[in-house]
Amino acid sequence: MGHIPFCVLFPVTVLAMVAVAAVDDEYTWPQWKVPLVRKRRTVPLSSPSFSAHPQPELSGTCGIECQHRLPSPSLEDLEQFLSYETVYENGTRTFTSISVQGLNEMTAWSRNASSSSRHKREVYGTDTRFTIADKQFSTKYPFSTSVKVSTGCSGVLVSPKHVLTAAHCIHDGKDYLDGVPKLRVGILKEKSRRGKGGRERGGRRKGRRRKGDTAQEDGQEKEENGGKGRGKGKSRKSRNRRSVESEKPSFRWTRVKKTQVPKGWFKGVSGGLAADYDYAVLELKKSSKVKHMDLGVISSVKKLPAGRIHFSGFDDDQPGNLVYRFCSVSEESNDLLYQYCDAKPGSSGSGVYIRLKEPGKKKWKRKIIGVFSGHQWVDVNGDGTQQDYNVAVRITPLKYAQICNWVHGESSECQALYEKTALQVFSTSAHQV
User: Are 284 and 257 a contacting pair, CB within 8 Å?
Assistant: First the structure.
Protein backbone atom coordinates (compact mmCIF):
# COMPACT_ATOMS: atom_id res chain seq x y z
CA MET A 1 0.00 0.00 0.00
CA GLY A 2 1.33 3.42 -0.92
CA HIS A 3 0.41 7.06 -0.51
CA ILE A 4 -1.49 7.27 -3.79
CA PRO A 5 -2.51 10.83 -4.77
CA PHE A 6 -6.24 11.34 -4.96
CA CYS A 7 -5.82 12.66 -8.51
CA VAL A 8 -4.74 9.12 -9.44
CA LEU A 9 -7.39 7.39 -7.36
CA PHE A 10 -10.23 9.47 -8.77
CA PRO A 11 -9.86 8.44 -12.45
CA VAL A 12 -9.66 4.80 -11.36
CA THR A 13 -12.88 5.21 -9.44
CA VAL A 14 -14.53 6.91 -12.42
CA LEU A 15 -13.58 3.99 -14.66
CA ALA A 16 -15.14 1.64 -12.14
CA MET A 17 -18.28 3.77 -12.13
CA VAL A 18 -18.54 3.67 -15.91
CA ALA A 19 -18.16 -0.09 -15.93
CA VAL A 20 -20.85 -0.49 -13.30
CA ALA A 21 -23.21 1.91 -15.08
CA ALA A 22 -23.24 -0.45 -18.04
CA VAL A 23 -25.10 -3.10 -16.05
CA ASP A 24 -28.71 -3.44 -17.22
CA ASP A 25 -30.53 -3.70 -13.90
CA GLU A 26 -29.41 -1.13 -11.37
CA TYR A 27 -30.99 -0.19 -8.05
CA THR A 28 -31.97 2.79 -5.97
CA TRP A 29 -32.27 2.72 -2.19
CA PRO A 30 -35.09 0.32 -1.20
CA GLN A 31 -37.68 1.56 1.28
CA TRP A 32 -38.38 -0.69 4.23
CA LYS A 33 -41.13 -0.95 6.78
CA VAL A 34 -39.03 -0.34 9.88
CA PRO A 35 -40.24 -1.87 13.15
CA LEU A 36 -40.52 0.14 16.35
CA VAL A 37 -38.08 -0.35 19.22
CA ARG A 38 -39.47 1.15 22.44
CA LYS A 39 -37.92 1.44 25.88
CA ARG A 40 -39.70 -0.74 28.39
CA ARG A 41 -37.78 -0.18 31.62
CA THR A 42 -34.43 1.26 32.73
CA VAL A 43 -32.77 0.13 35.98
CA PRO A 44 -29.42 1.11 37.55
CA LEU A 45 -26.57 -1.39 37.69
CA SER A 46 -23.33 -1.43 39.66
CA SER A 47 -20.38 0.31 38.02
CA PRO A 48 -18.27 -1.90 35.74
CA SER A 49 -14.74 -2.84 36.77
CA PHE A 50 -13.33 -1.70 33.39
CA SER A 51 -10.77 -4.51 33.46
CA ALA A 52 -10.91 -5.83 29.88
CA HIS A 53 -8.20 -5.29 27.27
CA PRO A 54 -8.59 -4.81 23.50
CA GLN A 55 -8.57 -8.01 21.44
CA PRO A 56 -6.68 -8.06 18.13
CA GLU A 57 -9.06 -10.68 16.74
CA LEU A 58 -12.29 -12.36 17.80
CA SER A 59 -13.18 -16.06 17.86
CA GLY A 60 -16.21 -18.30 18.25
CA THR A 61 -18.38 -16.53 15.67
CA CYS A 62 -21.10 -18.76 14.26
CA GLY A 63 -20.65 -18.60 10.47
CA ILE A 64 -23.10 -19.00 7.60
CA GLU A 65 -23.23 -22.79 7.60
CA CYS A 66 -23.29 -22.82 11.40
CA GLN A 67 -26.19 -20.36 11.52
CA HIS A 68 -28.24 -22.49 9.14
CA ARG A 69 -28.35 -25.15 11.86
CA LEU A 70 -29.78 -22.75 14.43
CA PRO A 71 -33.50 -21.97 14.90
CA SER A 72 -34.63 -18.45 14.05
CA PRO A 73 -34.71 -16.27 17.17
CA SER A 74 -38.15 -15.62 18.64
CA LEU A 75 -39.55 -12.17 19.35
CA GLU A 76 -38.65 -12.68 23.01
CA ASP A 77 -35.07 -13.57 22.01
CA LEU A 78 -34.75 -10.49 19.82
CA GLU A 79 -36.04 -8.22 22.57
CA GLN A 80 -33.42 -9.69 24.90
CA PHE A 81 -30.62 -9.27 22.35
CA LEU A 82 -31.61 -5.67 21.59
CA SER A 83 -31.95 -4.63 25.23
CA TYR A 84 -28.86 -2.67 26.10
CA GLU A 85 -26.50 -1.25 28.67
CA THR A 86 -25.56 2.41 28.92
CA VAL A 87 -22.31 3.53 30.54
CA TYR A 88 -21.93 7.21 31.44
CA GLU A 89 -18.75 9.26 31.67
CA ASN A 90 -18.90 9.22 35.48
CA GLY A 91 -18.68 5.41 35.47
CA THR A 92 -22.32 4.68 36.32
CA ARG A 93 -24.27 2.09 34.33
CA THR A 94 -27.90 1.27 33.54
CA PHE A 95 -29.76 -1.56 31.80
CA THR A 96 -32.71 -0.83 29.50
CA SER A 97 -35.13 -3.53 28.36
CA ILE A 98 -37.00 -2.91 25.11
CA SER A 99 -40.08 -4.06 23.23
CA VAL A 100 -40.31 -4.60 19.48
CA GLN A 101 -43.44 -3.76 17.48
CA GLY A 102 -44.19 -4.30 13.80
CA LEU A 103 -41.74 -7.18 13.31
CA ASN A 104 -44.26 -9.29 11.38
CA GLU A 105 -44.44 -6.62 8.67
CA MET A 106 -40.85 -7.31 7.64
CA THR A 107 -41.81 -10.16 5.32
CA ALA A 108 -39.18 -9.45 2.67
CA TRP A 109 -36.22 -9.59 5.03
CA SER A 110 -35.18 -13.25 4.78
CA ARG A 111 -31.98 -15.09 5.56
CA ASN A 112 -29.61 -15.50 2.63
CA ALA A 113 -28.82 -19.15 2.06
CA SER A 114 -25.29 -19.35 0.71
CA SER A 115 -22.02 -21.14 1.20
CA SER A 116 -18.67 -19.44 0.99
CA SER A 117 -15.18 -19.99 -0.25
CA ARG A 118 -12.54 -19.11 2.31
CA HIS A 119 -9.44 -16.96 2.19
CA LYS A 120 -7.07 -15.60 4.77
CA ARG A 121 -7.67 -12.12 6.08
CA GLU A 122 -5.89 -8.79 6.26
CA VAL A 123 -3.99 -8.20 2.98
CA TYR A 124 -4.62 -10.56 0.06
CA GLY A 125 -1.80 -10.41 -2.46
CA THR A 126 -1.42 -6.84 -3.74
CA ASP A 127 -2.41 -4.31 -1.10
CA THR A 128 -5.41 -2.41 -2.51
CA ARG A 129 -5.78 0.15 0.28
CA PHE A 130 -5.40 3.87 -0.39
CA THR A 131 -3.95 6.24 2.18
CA ILE A 132 -5.86 9.53 2.12
CA ALA A 133 -2.94 11.57 3.47
CA ASP A 134 -3.85 14.92 1.91
CA LYS A 135 -6.00 17.00 4.27
CA GLN A 136 -7.72 18.51 1.26
CA PHE A 137 -9.47 15.16 0.81
CA SER A 138 -9.35 13.48 4.24
CA THR A 139 -11.31 16.35 5.82
CA LYS A 140 -13.97 16.35 3.09
CA TYR A 141 -17.08 14.19 2.88
CA PRO A 142 -17.32 11.16 2.92
CA PHE A 143 -13.85 10.66 4.40
CA SER A 144 -14.48 13.28 7.09
CA THR A 145 -17.20 11.11 8.66
CA SER A 146 -14.54 8.62 9.77
CA VAL A 147 -13.33 9.09 13.35
CA LYS A 148 -10.69 7.57 15.59
CA VAL A 149 -11.75 5.97 18.89
CA SER A 150 -9.23 6.25 21.75
CA THR A 151 -9.39 2.50 22.50
CA GLY A 152 -7.63 1.89 19.18
CA CYS A 153 -10.56 1.51 16.78
CA SER A 154 -12.34 3.57 14.15
CA GLY A 155 -15.93 4.77 13.93
CA VAL A 156 -18.28 6.83 11.79
CA LEU A 157 -20.42 9.88 12.55
CA VAL A 158 -24.14 9.05 12.24
CA SER A 159 -25.29 12.39 13.70
CA PRO A 160 -23.49 15.55 14.87
CA LYS A 161 -23.20 13.97 18.35
CA HIS A 162 -23.21 10.20 17.73
CA VAL A 163 -20.58 7.76 16.54
CA LEU A 164 -21.27 4.20 15.38
CA THR A 165 -18.45 1.73 16.08
CA ALA A 166 -17.88 -1.95 16.90
CA ALA A 167 -19.00 -3.25 20.30
CA HIS A 168 -15.69 -5.09 20.83
CA CYS A 169 -13.97 -1.69 20.77
CA ILE A 170 -15.83 -0.94 24.02
CA HIS A 171 -16.60 -4.32 25.61
CA ASP A 172 -14.98 -7.77 25.31
CA GLY A 173 -18.22 -9.64 25.99
CA LYS A 174 -17.59 -9.88 29.72
CA ASP A 175 -16.49 -6.41 30.81
CA TYR A 176 -15.81 -2.92 29.47
CA LEU A 177 -12.31 -2.08 28.26
CA ASP A 178 -9.96 -0.30 30.64
CA GLY A 179 -9.91 2.77 28.37
CA VAL A 180 -13.69 3.34 28.43
CA PRO A 181 -13.76 5.65 31.52
CA LYS A 182 -11.65 8.17 29.56
CA LEU A 183 -13.11 7.39 26.16
CA ARG A 184 -12.54 10.02 23.46
CA VAL A 185 -13.27 10.37 19.79
CA GLY A 186 -10.87 12.07 17.38
CA ILE A 187 -12.34 13.97 14.42
CA LEU A 188 -10.01 14.90 11.57
CA LYS A 189 -9.11 18.57 11.76
CA GLU A 190 -8.64 20.85 8.79
CA LYS A 191 -5.45 22.82 8.33
CA SER A 192 -5.66 26.19 10.07
CA ARG A 193 -6.43 29.04 7.70
CA ARG A 194 -4.27 32.16 7.74
CA GLY A 195 -5.43 35.52 6.55
CA LYS A 196 -3.62 38.69 5.63
CA GLY A 197 -0.93 40.08 7.87
CA GLY A 198 0.17 36.63 8.99
CA ARG A 199 -2.77 36.22 11.33
CA GLU A 200 -4.49 32.93 11.91
CA ARG A 201 -8.21 32.63 12.38
CA GLY A 202 -9.08 34.24 15.71
CA GLY A 203 -6.52 37.05 15.34
CA ARG A 204 -3.37 35.22 16.47
CA ARG A 205 -0.19 36.16 14.65
CA LYS A 206 1.61 33.57 12.57
CA GLY A 207 4.41 31.89 14.49
CA ARG A 208 3.36 33.18 17.92
CA ARG A 209 2.11 30.91 20.67
CA ARG A 210 0.30 31.67 23.84
CA LYS A 211 1.93 30.60 27.07
CA GLY A 212 1.07 26.98 27.72
CA ASP A 213 -0.03 26.30 24.15
CA THR A 214 0.49 22.75 22.96
CA ALA A 215 -0.08 20.76 19.77
CA GLN A 216 -2.49 18.52 21.64
CA GLU A 217 -6.17 18.69 22.48
CA ASP A 218 -7.09 16.77 25.63
CA GLY A 219 -3.55 15.41 25.71
CA GLN A 220 -3.96 13.33 22.56
CA GLU A 221 -2.60 15.36 19.62
CA LYS A 222 1.14 15.30 19.11
CA GLU A 223 1.20 14.57 15.42
CA GLU A 224 1.06 17.97 13.78
CA ASN A 225 4.74 18.90 13.85
CA GLY A 226 6.35 15.74 15.17
CA GLY A 227 7.29 17.64 18.34
CA LYS A 228 10.01 19.61 16.52
CA GLY A 229 10.53 23.35 16.25
CA ARG A 230 12.09 25.29 13.40
CA GLY A 231 15.84 25.68 13.89
CA LYS A 232 18.40 27.79 12.06
CA GLY A 233 20.88 26.40 9.61
CA LYS A 234 18.77 23.43 8.61
CA SER A 235 18.98 22.18 5.06
CA ARG A 236 16.22 22.61 2.51
CA LYS A 237 15.71 18.82 2.66
CA SER A 238 15.09 18.95 6.39
CA ARG A 239 12.62 21.79 6.00
CA ASN A 240 10.79 19.88 3.30
CA ARG A 241 10.64 16.82 5.52
CA ARG A 242 9.17 18.86 8.35
CA SER A 243 6.68 20.35 5.92
CA VAL A 244 5.50 16.86 5.00
CA GLU A 245 5.26 15.89 8.65
CA SER A 246 3.14 18.96 9.39
CA GLU A 247 0.65 17.77 6.78
CA LYS A 248 -0.10 14.56 8.67
CA PRO A 249 -3.73 14.35 9.76
CA SER A 250 -4.42 15.83 13.17
CA PHE A 251 -7.45 15.32 15.37
CA ARG A 252 -9.85 17.35 17.45
CA TRP A 253 -10.55 15.11 20.43
CA THR A 254 -13.93 15.09 22.16
CA ARG A 255 -14.97 13.27 25.33
CA VAL A 256 -17.72 10.65 25.16
CA LYS A 257 -20.78 11.38 27.27
CA LYS A 258 -22.27 7.89 27.19
CA THR A 259 -21.86 4.53 25.48
CA GLN A 260 -24.59 2.06 24.50
CA VAL A 261 -24.00 -1.63 23.72
CA PRO A 262 -26.66 -4.26 22.85
CA LYS A 263 -26.96 -7.23 25.22
CA GLY A 264 -26.73 -9.54 22.21
CA TRP A 265 -22.98 -8.84 22.20
CA PHE A 266 -22.49 -10.09 25.77
CA LYS A 267 -21.18 -13.61 26.41
CA GLY A 268 -23.88 -16.14 27.16
CA VAL A 269 -26.75 -13.96 25.93
CA SER A 270 -26.91 -14.69 22.21
CA GLY A 271 -24.51 -17.65 22.10
CA GLY A 272 -22.81 -18.09 18.73
CA LEU A 273 -24.75 -15.12 17.30
CA ALA A 274 -22.76 -12.58 19.33
CA ALA A 275 -20.96 -11.29 16.21
CA ASP A 276 -24.34 -10.22 14.80
CA TYR A 277 -24.47 -7.58 17.54
CA ASP A 278 -20.91 -6.28 17.34
CA TYR A 279 -21.89 -2.61 17.22
CA ALA A 280 -22.20 0.26 19.69
CA VAL A 281 -23.08 3.96 19.70
CA LEU A 282 -21.09 6.69 21.44
CA GLU A 283 -22.70 10.01 22.32
CA LEU A 284 -20.25 12.93 22.30
CA LYS A 285 -20.23 15.72 24.87
CA LYS A 286 -19.95 18.31 22.11
CA SER A 287 -21.53 18.27 18.67
CA SER A 288 -19.14 18.07 15.75
CA LYS A 289 -19.37 20.51 12.87
CA VAL A 290 -18.65 17.72 10.41
CA LYS A 291 -21.30 16.34 8.07
CA HIS A 292 -22.45 12.89 9.19
CA MET A 293 -23.59 9.90 7.13
CA ASP A 294 -27.10 8.43 7.36
CA LEU A 295 -27.90 4.76 7.94
CA GLY A 296 -29.30 2.60 5.16
CA VAL A 297 -30.87 -0.84 4.90
CA ILE A 298 -30.45 -3.22 1.99
CA SER A 299 -31.33 -6.92 1.91
CA SER A 300 -28.58 -8.08 -0.45
CA VAL A 301 -25.33 -6.37 -1.33
CA LYS A 302 -24.26 -9.12 -3.74
CA LYS A 303 -27.22 -8.38 -6.01
CA LEU A 304 -26.22 -4.73 -6.37
CA PRO A 305 -24.01 -3.57 -9.25
CA ALA A 306 -20.54 -5.00 -8.53
CA GLY A 307 -21.72 -5.96 -5.03
CA ARG A 308 -19.17 -3.48 -3.72
CA ILE A 309 -18.75 -1.90 -0.31
CA HIS A 310 -16.51 0.98 0.86
CA PHE A 311 -15.06 2.04 4.21
CA SER A 312 -12.30 4.19 5.67
CA GLY A 313 -10.51 3.73 8.97
CA PHE A 314 -7.30 4.28 10.89
CA ASP A 315 -5.32 1.08 10.31
CA ASP A 316 -2.58 0.39 12.85
CA ASP A 317 0.15 0.10 10.22
CA GLN A 318 -0.52 3.69 9.06
CA PRO A 319 -0.50 5.66 12.35
CA GLY A 320 -2.61 8.79 12.18
CA ASN A 321 -3.48 8.34 8.52
CA LEU A 322 -6.91 7.63 7.10
CA VAL A 323 -7.00 4.50 4.94
CA TYR A 324 -9.72 3.95 2.33
CA ARG A 325 -10.62 0.71 0.57
CA PHE A 326 -13.39 -0.88 -1.45
CA CYS A 327 -14.10 -4.47 -2.42
CA SER A 328 -16.90 -6.82 -3.42
CA VAL A 329 -18.90 -8.80 -0.87
CA SER A 330 -18.19 -12.51 -1.29
CA GLU A 331 -20.96 -13.97 0.86
CA GLU A 332 -23.66 -12.63 3.16
CA SER A 333 -25.98 -13.88 5.86
CA ASN A 334 -28.96 -12.09 7.34
CA ASP A 335 -26.72 -10.21 9.78
CA LEU A 336 -23.15 -10.46 8.48
CA LEU A 337 -21.18 -9.52 5.36
CA TYR A 338 -18.18 -11.68 4.47
CA GLN A 339 -15.58 -9.96 2.32
CA TYR A 340 -11.87 -9.77 1.68
CA CYS A 341 -11.22 -6.04 1.92
CA ASP A 342 -7.58 -5.46 2.78
CA ALA A 343 -7.49 -4.23 6.37
CA LYS A 344 -5.34 -4.10 9.48
CA PRO A 345 -6.26 -3.78 13.17
CA GLY A 346 -7.45 -0.27 13.96
CA SER A 347 -9.98 -0.24 11.12
CA SER A 348 -12.52 -2.14 13.26
CA GLY A 349 -15.62 -0.06 13.84
CA SER A 350 -15.44 1.71 10.47
CA GLY A 351 -18.75 2.50 8.78
CA VAL A 352 -19.32 0.30 5.71
CA TYR A 353 -21.24 2.21 3.06
CA ILE A 354 -22.54 2.10 -0.50
CA ARG A 355 -23.87 4.79 -2.81
CA LEU A 356 -27.22 4.52 -4.62
CA LYS A 357 -29.82 6.84 -6.10
CA GLU A 358 -32.66 8.06 -3.94
CA PRO A 359 -36.09 6.88 -5.14
CA GLY A 360 -37.63 9.25 -7.67
CA LYS A 361 -34.61 11.56 -7.64
CA LYS A 362 -31.43 12.01 -9.63
CA LYS A 363 -29.44 12.62 -6.48
CA TRP A 364 -26.89 10.07 -5.32
CA LYS A 365 -26.55 9.36 -1.62
CA ARG A 366 -24.13 7.35 0.47
CA LYS A 367 -25.51 5.44 3.44
CA ILE A 368 -23.95 3.22 6.06
CA ILE A 369 -25.15 -0.36 5.68
CA GLY A 370 -22.81 -2.02 8.18
CA VAL A 371 -19.99 -1.81 10.71
CA PHE A 372 -16.62 -3.37 9.94
CA SER A 373 -15.94 -5.87 12.73
CA GLY A 374 -12.56 -7.05 11.44
CA HIS A 375 -10.76 -10.35 11.54
CA GLN A 376 -12.79 -13.10 13.18
CA TRP A 377 -12.33 -16.81 13.66
CA VAL A 378 -15.59 -18.37 12.56
CA ASP A 379 -17.13 -21.68 13.64
CA VAL A 380 -17.85 -22.92 10.12
CA ASN A 381 -20.14 -25.92 10.63
CA GLY A 382 -21.02 -25.69 14.31
CA ASP A 383 -18.54 -28.45 15.17
CA GLY A 384 -15.75 -26.24 16.46
CA THR A 385 -13.84 -26.04 13.17
CA GLN A 386 -12.38 -22.54 12.94
CA GLN A 387 -11.82 -20.51 9.77
CA ASP A 388 -10.81 -16.85 9.55
CA TYR A 389 -12.74 -14.16 7.71
CA ASN A 390 -13.07 -10.42 7.39
CA VAL A 391 -16.54 -9.71 8.73
CA ALA A 392 -18.88 -6.71 8.80
CA VAL A 393 -22.13 -6.48 10.76
CA ARG A 394 -24.94 -5.35 8.50
CA ILE A 395 -27.66 -2.88 9.43
CA THR A 396 -31.00 -4.71 9.39
CA PRO A 397 -34.38 -2.93 9.77
CA LEU A 398 -34.44 -3.98 13.42
CA LYS A 399 -30.92 -2.72 14.13
CA TYR A 400 -31.73 0.45 12.23
CA ALA A 401 -34.68 1.02 14.58
CA GLN A 402 -32.53 0.38 17.66
CA ILE A 403 -29.68 2.66 16.60
CA CYS A 404 -32.21 5.34 15.69
CA ASN A 405 -33.71 4.97 19.17
CA TRP A 406 -30.27 5.59 20.66
CA VAL A 407 -29.65 8.62 18.46
CA HIS A 408 -33.08 10.26 18.46
CA GLY A 409 -34.67 8.81 21.57
CA GLU A 410 -37.71 7.64 19.61
CA SER A 411 -37.49 5.10 16.78
CA SER A 412 -40.84 6.25 15.33
CA GLU A 413 -38.87 9.08 13.70
CA CYS A 414 -36.95 6.49 11.70
CA GLN A 415 -40.10 4.56 10.89
CA ALA A 416 -41.54 7.68 9.26
CA LEU A 417 -38.52 7.90 6.97
CA TYR A 418 -39.39 4.59 5.36
CA GLU A 419 -43.19 4.73 5.34
CA LYS A 420 -43.37 7.20 2.46
CA THR A 421 -42.71 4.46 -0.09
CA ALA A 422 -43.87 0.85 -0.28
CA LEU A 423 -41.34 -1.93 0.13
CA GLN A 424 -39.76 -2.18 -3.29
CA VAL A 425 -36.56 -1.85 -5.26
CA PHE A 426 -36.61 0.49 -8.23
CA SER A 427 -34.79 -0.29 -11.46
CA THR A 428 -32.82 2.73 -12.63
CA SER A 429 -29.41 3.80 -13.85
CA ALA A 430 -27.16 3.66 -10.79
CA HIS A 431 -23.61 3.12 -9.70
CA GLN A 432 -21.59 2.84 -6.50
CA VAL A 433 -18.71 5.01 -5.40
Answer: yes
Q: What is the mean pLDDT of residues 278-284?
A: 97
Task: Sort strands 58-62 and 364-379 into parallel, antiparallel or unpaired.
Answer: parallel
Q: Which of 44, 40, 55 is nearest to 91 (CA)?
A: 44
Assess if residue 210 is contained within a domain. Answer: no
- Supply the Cα-derived Rg of the chain in whole angstroms: 22
Q: How many CB atoms lie within 10 A of CB 404?
A: 23
In this structure, is the dihedral angle defined by the CA atoms of residues 204, 209, 210 and 216, taken in order, positive or negative?
Answer: positive
Whether 81 maps to a domain, the answer reads yes
Q: Domain for residue 80, yes or no?
A: yes
Domain count, the chain: 1
Residue 212 falls inside a structural domain? no
Domain range holding 17?
6-106+121-188+252-428
Burial class (CB in 10 A: 0-12, 13-18, 19+), 257: middle
pTM of the model: 0.76
Cis, bond preceding 48 (omega within 30 deg of 0): no
Q: Contact at 8 Å (CB) between 375 and 334? A: no
CA 422 from centre of chain: 28
pLDDT of residue 29: 86
Residue 101's domain is classified under what CATH number?
2.40.10.10
98: nearest Cα among 270, 266, 263: 263
What's the average model confidence in pLDDT over 249-261? 93
